[in-house]
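ok trying this again, last paste got cut off
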Amino acid sequence: MKWNGKTADASYLIGGAIKGGRAVIDFSEGDGFLSKILSGIHLENSFDLGFDYSGKEGLHFHGSSALDIQLASHISLGPIELSALTLTVGIDNGKFPAAISTDLKASLGPMTAVVEGLGFEISIALAAGNSGNLGPLDIVPGFKPPKGVGLSINAGAVKGGGYLYLDFKKGEYAGALELDLAGIVTAKAIGLISTKLPNGNKGFALLIIISVEFGTPIQLGFGFTLIAVGGLVGLNRSMNLNALAEGIRSGAVNSIMFPKGVIANAPKIISDLGNFFPSEEGHFLIGPMAKIGWGTPTLISLALGVIIEIPPGDIAIVGVLKVALPTEDIGLIVLQVNFIGAIEPDKARMWFFASLYDSRVLFITLDGDMGLLFAFGDDANFVVSLGGFHPRYNPPPLPFPNPRRISIDILNTPIARIRVDGYFAVTSNSVQFGAHAELYFGFSVLNVDGQIGFDALLQFSPFHFIVEVYASLSVNVFGAGLFSLSISLSLEGPTPWRAHGSGSITILFFSVDVDIDTTWGETRNTTLPPVKVMPLFVGEFSKPENWRALPPNKNKLLVSLRKLPEDEAAQVLHPLGALRVTQRALPLNLKLDKVGTQKPSDVNRLSITAGGSGLVKKSDVKERFAPGQYQDMDDAQKLSRPAYGPENGGLDLSPAGKPLAASRMVKRVVRYEQIVIDTGFKRSRFMFFLLAGKLFNFFLGNASASQSELSMAYNRKLQPFDEVITVAAAGYSVAFQDTNKTYLSSATFASEASAREYMNVQIANDAGLTDTLHVIPQHELAA
């Protein structure tokens, strides 16, 4: 209510809403007549509907939903047939759109055309103040364009067809084409166009895949044949490597590697392509493909494609390897391996992932994955896995799915099941492998269920292993246990051997439990012979590639220097640059318990200094080292500690004394001579006045050199932002276990290994700190 001084103006608003509504149309329970002719109609649709009514603006509806009712119909008009009549009624934020459409099929000799969803639509809206074209209603009729058009041809020598998908609201258009020319060649093409970018801006994104398959493979010699060739081109498209890796496991990668049944599977193929290669402005894709076989008929085939994304320069190698014996049609042995390998320069890593897909030997099915990761950037890592990892191992973030166990299903029926699976993995800190087998026979009233397996963790020097073995067997009658046996055993060795575990036997209501813990054998030295560290260390610094001359960090000279041969480049040092001496064989300033699998025999700590050469240390050079190769770790640490860490590997050296430096602005002393001629014709001379520094800086700021577009453009490229955000490298700290408060606030370590060594030194100096300190990432410190 509002008061204008004389009268009151009141307004009111009444509204309501239905959230999660559901409309159901079902004629199956109607009377005899309706249930007979309309029993096939059962429609369910969810909707949200709301309304508002005010004294000033009247009635308004809001919400969004649509109900499609499709009626089976077959109306023939000569060569044209109308089918699948569809009625659409909806709500779209105050408007009530309605449409009627049908599928049209036309047979014209050897050609058949299908138009999907062609019809008319009408939009009804409530108009305020009888301003609509029909008083209170505003009705706008229109043409409803088709959402799909298909064409097939069967003209003897030419067979095939095509499909065109249209979505005008989303601005997406896609098409697929497949033509068989007299069995000589089969041409396939798939295209995908988006006229709206993901950020909502206007633009377009294009993706085209073209392939040609030969009816009779072309002989290449030595039994190899060329089955097909093709390629992929994308404009304003990027490559989703994570989705491609998932597609390797699910088999969706076949949508881009010479797909079969392009027309029949067009919707699925188009959906997969949109997921693999999403729209992204400024990115370009190119990917040649080929399919090569061996044997006649083809026994082994390899479909291979190389996809390059520019920028950032990612490269993916996608392939499908298939073995079918004796032939693909009646294959008794079918092995198919889908794989992808990727090089990501921006993320400083390479990886490979492969998956067994739809593979079998007779009736025995095969399954499983394999993965390889080699990261060489700031987050360096190395992982190889065939079938997964040790159950207690937490793998680092992987760019591909966690590999599944390599498994063999010997029997897989409701009354009998025999399955065997296993794994093998190598990381920078450990070797892991294991296997598991299970069996089941019987019915719900009587069955036998059992399993057996082991998991192993292995180190080489000193040679030591831990193997955990487990087994169980049970007989169940009517859901109750009649007999059960379970064993869990851990075996360590070999010098001495130790076995510990437990066993249990249960018969009806009686149970016997046994604990085992026994040790036998003599203690022997299984360590490999020690190794001399200093010759390895000196040998690293004798390599020319470990000596590099570095230019200044902020060299803004608008010139390019002549490229020198590699053997000379390391000998030419810029006056403002630095000499880098580094190596990646042995970490510096870190206690060496071992080198690889051998103990050091001469020294266990290394460091380098500069002296007597006119050069002084400028900074330490960090390199990536695997701590498990240089420090002793127990099994838990091998599974949990970081695979790689930054440690000192060398030095940056610069000339002794005050470093040479020159500012970008050169100051000069300007002197001038002043002569005054007065009316009395008296001449006075004042020699050598100094120009004030402030005036010099003022004149310099407006000089042509300072206003040079070339200089400004160059500086803007080096630093395009006025405000700069920097991210500090992650570090480690030594903290108290009970509070996570830092032990020494000023101590921050670049690697987990250096922080742990500092902690061990503090504990050695003060025994009271035992079991009170631990190493944690710096971001976990308590405030």
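PB: full thing came through this time. Confidence is low (pLDDT under 50) at residues 31-40.
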